[in-house]
Amino acid sequence: xxxxxxxxxxxxxxxxxxxxxxxxxxxxxxxxxxxxxxxxxxxxxxxxxxxxxxxxxxxxxxxxxxxxxxxxxxxxxxxxxxxxxxxxxxxxxxxxxxxxxxxxxxxxxxxxxxxxxxxxxxxxxxxxxxxxxxxxxxxxxxxxxxxxxxxxxxxxxxxxxxxxxxxxxxxxxxxxxxxxxxxxxxxxxxxxxxxxxxxxxxxxxxxxxxxxxxxxxxxxxxxxxxxxxxxxxxxxxxxxxxxxxxxxxxxxxxxxxxxxxxxxxxxxxxxxxxxxxxxxxxxxxxxxxxxxxxxxxxxxxxxxxxxxxxxxxxxxxxxxxxxxxxxxxxxxxxxxxxxxxxxxxxxxxxxxxxxxxxxxxxxxxxxxxxxxxxxxxxxxxxxxxxxxxxxxxxxxxxxxxxxxxxxxxxxxxxxxxxxxxxxxxxxx
Amino acid sequence: xxxxxxxxxxxxxxxxxxxxxxxxxxxxxxxxxxxxxxxxxxxxxxxxxxxxxxxxxxxxxxxxxxxxxxxxxxxxxxxxxxxxxxxxxxxxxxxxxxxxxxxxxxxxxxxxxxxxxxxxxxxxxxxxxxxxxxxxxxxxxxxxxxxxxxxxxxxxxxxxxxxxxxxxxxxxxxxxxxxxxxxxxxxxxxxxxxxxxxxxxxxxxxxxxxxxxxxxxxxxxxxxxxxxxxxxxxxxxxxxxxxxxxxxxxxxxxxxxxxxxxxxxxxxxxxxxxxxxxxxxxxxxxxxxxxxxxxxxxxxxxxxxxxxxxxxxxxxxxxxxxxxxxxxxxxxxxxxxxxxxxxxxxxxxxxxxxxxxxxxxxxxxxxxxxxxxxxxxxxxxxxxxxxxxxxxxxxxxxxxxxxxxxxxxxxxxxxxxxxxxxxxxxxx
Lengths: 428, 428
Fold this sequence. Notes:
The structure is a homodimer. A two-stranded parallel sheet of chain A has the order 1-3. Chain A has 2 domains: 12-203, Clc chloride channel (Orthogonal Bundle), CATH 1.10.3080.10; 230-422, Clc chloride channel. Chain A has 16 helices and 3 strands. Chain A is globular. Chain A has helices spanning 3-6, 12-53, 61-75, 83-91, 101-114, 122-139, 144-163, 166-175, 187-203, 230-264, 270-286, 319-332, 340-358, 362-378, 381-392, 397-410, and strands at 178-179, 181-183, 421-422. Chains A, B: This is Voltage-gated chloride channel protein.
């Protein structure tokens, strides 16, 4: 071995040492993160059911926006920056992620959902994981290099627990940092934390929604587990171009709504009030509350929601666009929560529409849309391909990969996380 | 959008343009590569059956080594560098990958297998793909940037076709270039070529071996498709440390055998002759031909081979080590073929042994070993996790990820490809 190789030599004992250290450090991170995520998911479910029972709560949206504004004003400091702060701190540990971020984002997200804002969960979970990891780092007085790793672990744990997808959580935490690459620093610490946090969350008796793809493909005995059909692949590619463009539209619209409301509404506290009023107005215009809240399931059996997007009949051809607008206004005008569940909604309903348009299996395209719009908006095609497997099983891996890779190409370079490093052009 | 964002803007039309161009370019690459890989797989099967029928062929191994030496001497030029030449050219297009590499490596690999050398297939397929892609690049007079992409496509196509795993092929082509990262340049062109090449190969009526994992895990309704068991995870981690160390041992032993035979056998043409003699001697010492050739299946129902490693009863506890030694000698002393199928053999048999030792499901640990030893030796943990899904289905994704990631940590920085860039330490 040459000297350049020697420099890179790592003894198995050093690796075991590293892994034992990170297994131990991952325990507090995942116990706290997993438990808070469980509390968050439980509160979210309660808030959603309360809203179904008392639809009048929607009228409280403008006031709740004011409350959220005020909570961040008195308690927030730099916590307002949310996911971007966590990503920034991983790139360059500095100011630190404040521990108060966790309760703040948890409470304000539940408020957003209780009063019918259209938002998600992953942002909240990532911020809970990130801030609790930062707190553990402080307690154990970790150095900068270790702070980077523990923050990634927090992101992995929060993401893995909130969606019940541990492998996706680990890869997402590494892939989200930059556009165009995954770096394997902290591969195992992230996977360990993500697995632990998911177990902790499940141990609190939290159930994740199950999805089913009935479509089994053409049985081709030469390719075990892969049932591929050329025409269907072409349809998936066309649909995935639409998924990528929808990701881009969502990112650009949210950016612009944020920018324009700052510019035209001089008093910052009026932004969420105005946002709440617009959501109320839109809800009454379209005469349905299907686009408020999380949208995984709905108050009625025939609601437009993610679960129903997996079969034909309930989704309107413009459902994806309505959810996109509702969410861009909610998140662009000061309410809290993640973007990912709405992206699942947008993708699954757009997939439903594209399937009917192209004559493809509805459940398959809903599943591909579910992961591909998310892949495009966050520039994480590999994590999202893995998510397809964790949520829907491995049978349709080829379609998942095509969907996520294609959406990644067509989603532009904006993305929903401004702090993501832009390492390279998507095409050269 | 700020100016730093503008710089990265890519219009959907430019992306479509890029993808149409690469879809068209991938057609000749995948038709030629897929067909040659099909011819190669067919020849391999014929050679293997001939060897089963006429065991006396083993005595021809030293002479066949001389023939291979002579073939590369008169026709080889820089083709001798094999996979490393392809990787070097992707990093820095220069001297070019000669088209003669394809027939040379195809013929010499079949010779190696016919006379009972212990070798694999992926190296041959990657070199066929790489050299044919380089030839297409020459015909179309592509520039350096496009040569890089088309070479990656060739690698993806060769790999995807030879194992029937298109998604793995695409990710492998990107992941193998450097230790510690995947860069997404050419993500879709690689996937397109890999899918096409696999179809072409299948259309020639080539069948890939099917593996089955009967173990279904503890049914845990909270995690759809993922059936996780803490104790079993711990067992998988321990086994995977062994897998990683086995990868490292293989890489180091092959390097050293190559180095020492160069040093002590002054006449270069005598190296493969000596190698052939050692393989004959070893075969007669252990009284079985189970460790010659590919090892996917065997001449007898109770042979030690990859398929039989998936259930208890046929594999010896030292089978993995015998295959490791046979392969290191074969490839370290001038015979041709890939390393990956022997790595599958080493991993599956070591997994079999570890399963009996640890009291874990034999088929599960054989499958994890199959992909994890390969992940460690090539430093491609994500491609190998995906390969687990493509070969064995998505149910055991968590174990596949744990196995491949852990083996990656414990396999050192040597790897079987000397040209792989060493971007970072595995632990920090």
